[in-house]
């Protein structure tokens, strides 16, 4: 361990013992090796900076974890083993698809009002071939026949079942392993230990560092023991810079793996410059640049000694139809070569007459993370082939 690493990890407090989590990571690694699987370590969500040792107040940063969770879904369905290192209570693969709507959990529930009924919408019979037997359904036969029992509502039964069965499949076959962090110290401690554990996979491993990492923190010896009291006075907090651990990730923790980092900016004129600087500083494989105002629609890939590649979100037929109903020109910017996507975001936030909009079914969205994942798998395969020769 370098002096920089050692001093940082001495100056942060780990609020729990992570030995059990790291044992699960070791078992995950062994499963992947046994099955000759390619692996992606995805970091996701934001990190917090505690103000007190007995934490009441803290600094947080912008990230709900949608990019990481959606990317995990894509790679799982493409046969990768996924180690999902995410912020506690951030968005999770498949579960998130039941959360990102103008609804809440109770919306998906209903009451079975018929004796011997199954709580399902008979109008959805065309979807029954998705479920081969009773073991493939959410509602067991014993629950189906209980009158007035709470169950998945008839309008959402098949959509909820589909997401649940995906999640269940990957958890049970061992290809999805999840570990949580909360503080920036916990995140970097886990990133170091997990990436080191997985480094034996060499070129078969992608590290996809999508977490939003705090740039500053308060060392333990500068931190208040108890809650900082409010005395109607101004408060001055001094923060130290968090060491740039990507260099250690690339050079020491897993030097033979495919490393992906992100660069988020608000000013498009400096985005390429920042991405190239990151590549130069850390000498890793890929920087994905994106703008805060348009990160759901396009990103730009920067690689060593290669021309940049723009990756855009593809619309599903459903989305194209809905955009055309709202405004014939609203989807134009996603189909041409410029980066002006203001129309699309305007329609995301504008208060339209929802009575004239058809509700999009759960799971039919085609997020940009699928396009990112498709290109990344192509680049990863090239990396594997290059390093196997």
UniProtKB/TrEMBL annotation:
Which InterPro entries does the UniProt record give?
A: CoaB-like_sf, DNA/pantothenate-metab_flavo_C
Q: Where is this region: Disordered?
A: 325-360
By its UniProt entry, which Pfam families does this protein fall under?
DFP
Q: Name one GO cellular component term.
A: nucleus
Q: Which residues form the DNA/pantothenate metabolism flavoprotein C-terminal domain?
A: 202-326
UniProt entry tagged with the keyword Ligase? yes
Q: In its UniProt record, which GO terms are filed under biological process?
A: coenzyme A biosynthetic process
| Alphabetic keyword roster | Ligase
Gene Ontology molecular function, alphabetical: phosphopantothenate--cysteine ligase activity
Q: Could you confirm whether the keyword Ligase appears in this record?
A: yes
Say which family it is in.
Belongs to the PPC synthetase family.
Question: What is the name of this protein?
Answer: Phosphopantothenatecysteine ligase
Q: What is the lineage of its organism?
A: Eukaryota, Amoebozoa, Evosea, Eumycetozoa, Dictyostelia
